[in-house]
Amino acid sequence: MVRIAVFLPTYNERDNISLIIEEVFKNLSLTHYDLHVIVIDDSSPDGTGYLVMEIAEVNDHVHLLSRVGKQGLGSAYVDGFKWSLSNLSPDIFIQMDADFSHSPHYLSNFVGGILDGYDVIIGSRYVKGGGATSWSLHRKIISRGANLLVRLLFRIKEKDATSGFRALSKKAVNYLLKFDLSSKGYSYQIESLLLFSKLGLPIKEIPIIFFGRKKGKAKLSILEILRFAFLLIRLRFIKFNKLK
Ligand SMILES: Nc1nc2c(ncn2[C@@H]2O[C@H](COP(=O)(O)OP(=O)(O)OP(=O)(O)O)[C@@H](O)[C@H]2O)c(=O)[nH]1
Ligand SMILES: [Mg+2]
């Protein structure tokens, strides 16, 4: 049976976490897959971690990785992948937000893409059939702007480089963990995609409708956006320049 690990990084997702875990199991049935959910929680002050601990006590396919203090989305995935390779050795790795922006209905499409032989499947808002709903103009501009900047700087063909809804093969994850990532936060999505693209791994974008957060507070700050822009420039002219 194919072993799938779904990674849910959380910071203050008390209102979403139990339901999203339930929905993941509904959409990728345990009768077809050996499915595991790994929540990487950064000691959320709202007690998300305690809720997950309770679920993990009664469901041995749910795992909690607790970290001290908010350490960023990218580093949460990296720590989750490392933990899973030592403890579960999954065949397919799925990254997903815990706030229902990424609909669990798409999960089987991601799995199908990796089973078809792709190493990276990206849930894309900017291919035919994709899109975003309940997003403020402000968020739309940030997302479009970030993608435009990435395409201008790096000339990659993927249309949604910032999407965090992805599936990765074990090969892709092993490459990622060997690479010295500069990104700890949201820009992890771009840096990892640049790496996969440079390595020539087969990448496919599949359409998703992205849902703006329903519950909980938005966390993408101006500081994160500025940090992101500087990082892109550094990656383009220093780090990935050397990899050419
Ligand atoms: N473990 C961990 N998870 C994080 C961190 N930052 C964000 N997350 C989680 O990563 C996922 C994506 O973060 P969001 O805050 O939803 O980011 P976003 O979708 O760009 O922004 P909004 O939904 O508009 O707030 C969510 O499940 C968050 O709870 C972090 O520092 N550590
Ligand atoms: Mg979100």
Strand % is 15-25%
Q: Into which percent range does the helicity of residues fall?
A: 40-55%
Number of separate structural domains? 1
Bound molecules: guanosine-5'-triphosphate, magnesium ion
Measured between the Cα atoms of the first and last residue, the distance is 39 Å
The biggest sheet, with number of strands, parallel, antiparallel or mixed sense and barrel status, is: 7 strands, mixed
CATH homologous superfamily placement? Spore Coat Polysaccharide Biosynthesis Protein SpsA, Chain A
Q: SS-based structural class? A: alpha/beta
- Count of alpha and pi helical runs: 8
CATH class: Alpha Beta
CATH architecture name: Alpha-Beta Complex
- Describe the global form: globular
Rg, Å, rounded: 17 Å
Mean pLDDT: 92
Explained architecture:
The protein is an alpha/beta fold and 244 residues long. It has one domain (3-242): Spore Coat Polysaccharide Biosynthesis Protein SpsA, Chain A (Alpha-Beta Complex), CATH 3.90.550.10. It contains 8 helices and 9 strands. A 7-stranded mixed sheet has the order 3-2-1-4-7-5-8, sandwiched between helices. A two-stranded parallel ribbon has the order 6-9. Helix 5 (137-154) packs parallel to helix 8 (222-242). The longest helix has 21 residues, at 222-242. It is globular. Residues 9-11, 13, 40-42, 70-73, 76, 97-99, 101, 213, 218-220 line the site of guanosine-5'-triphosphate.
